[in-house]
Write the C-alpha cells for this entry.
Amino acid sequence: MKVKNATVSVVIPTMDRYEILKQSLPLIVKHGFDEVIVVDSSRSDQRKMNEELCRKLGAKYYYKAANRQEARNFGVEKAKGEWVWIRDDDVKLIDAGLETLREKMASKDHDFIHAGAFVWIFRREFFLKIGGYDTKLCLYDDYDISFRAKKYGRECKLSKPIGLSGEFEKSVRMHWKGVFFYGLSFSNFVKKYPSLWSANLMPGLLAGLLKEFLQKRTKYNLLLLVLGTLGFLFSTLYFVNPRIFYKPFYPLSR
C-alpha cells in the first residue's frame, strides 16, 4: 500500500507462533507496504522457519530475545518509514478501510491513527517521542500508549477498522500461556494508573476475558478461566506485597 508523500513500515513481533505467522504475513505483504519488519523472539527451532518465511515473502527479519513490547519498540527503531503500524502476528487485515487509511496518512494533520480495536498507527518520530510501549506492561499496553498519545498528539479515528485481533487459530497451550501472564501483569498497570482501579476497570476487564473464553467453544474453557483467575490473584497479591513472590516467578515485572 503506497501513500502519497509518505512511507509506511509494518512491525510484527512474534514468539513461537510460526503456524500463525505463516497465515498472517502473506496477507500483509501482498498490500505492498514500503517495509515489513518481523521481530522474532522464538526458540531456536522456530527461528529458522520464521526467517525462511520472511526471506520468501520479502519481509525484513530480526531476532531479538525480548518480550512483546520490547520487540515492538525495537522494530520501530529499525523502521525507515515515516509511519509505523505495529501489529501483532494474529491480526487479520481488513481491506475495506485501507483506502481511507491511505488518505489519512498522506495528511500532515495527524500524529497517530486509531484504525480499529487495538490497531494504532503512529508517525515514527512521534512514537519515539512518547517513549514507545511500556516494556513492563503485558495487559492493557495498548490502552497505556493510547493514553500518552492522546495527551501529547493529534488523533485521527477511522470509521472503518482495518484489523481484527485473534482471527487465526491458536493452540490451547497458547491460550493458557497468554491468559495466565495477562493476569500476572495486571498489577503493573494498576500501579501506573491507580485512578482506574475501580468499577471503571475490573468488571469490564473480567467480562472481556470471560467473553473471550466462551467464544473459543472448547472443552478447556473452564481451565482457561481458572488460569486467568489464578494469574489475577497472584498479580493482586504481588501488588499488595511484592516480597510474596521471587522475581523469577514474576518475569513480567522486570
In short: Residues 221-240 form the longest helix (20 residues). The CA atoms of residues 8 and 214 lie 37 Å apart. The chain has ten helices and nine strands.
